[in-house]
Please model this.
Amino acid sequence: MALSKVYHQGGHGQPIDLAAVKLDWENGWPFFRLHFSAVSGRLKACGRPADFELRSDPPAPTAPMIYRTDFDPHDPAGLILRAGGPTNRPMPLIYGAGLHPYLNIVDEKDMALPAFGPIQVPGQ
Model:
């Protein structure tokens, strides 16, 4: 980022930022479409993309959880987060929570998706 922002050298990565979150449904199950800005090429991961979390306040045993993260085949700067359980109200979404997060999503210039949250994502 310093080469791009400070030294104004072209061809280097830009800071990635969350641009949009949309709730959608497939076969009665909720999923979230995330779109990021300033992605160079496509998003990718070494291994399984992971470490997204929905929070419930207060914590509830029936609260939805993110059980799978996929790269959006129609959006090179997009992710699809599949949620198990009802999302009947807005909930906080976090990427990289805790003391030892596993953040492995990058773009083709190896710029990492930054940890973020909590941000409110829509409910039904």
